[in-house]
Amino acid sequence: MTNRFEELKSLIHALESDFDKFYDKNNNAAGTRVRKGMQELKNLAQDIRVQVQDVKNKG
Predict the structure, then answer these.
(1) What are the residues whose beta carbons fall under 8 Å from the beta carbon of 8, sequence distance 6 or more?
(2) At residue 26, what are phi and psi to the nearest 5 degrees?
(3) Taking a C-beta distance cutoff of 8 angstroms, is the pair 34, 22 a contact?
(4) Closest Cα partner for 30 from 14, 9, 10?
(5) What whole-number distance in Å separates Cα of residue 30 and Cα of residue 23?
(6) What is the average pLDDT across 17-45?
(7) How many Å apart are CA 48 and CA 2, to the nearest integer?
(8) What is the average per-residue pLDDT within 2-21?
């Protein structure tokens, strides 16, 4: 479980420069990368939610 959380934090950190490029410098390609990264975050967060629920139900 800890690995998944570390993966989530790494992905957020990796997206930081693209957020800056998109919002501060109006770089549309960075916006595409942000949207893709946010979709990955959504999927990863959902996986973590399912794992937490499984652990909770077993315990």
Answers:
(1) 41, 44, 45, 48
(2) 55, 40
(3) yes
(4) 14
(5) 9
(6) 97
(7) 10
(8) 94
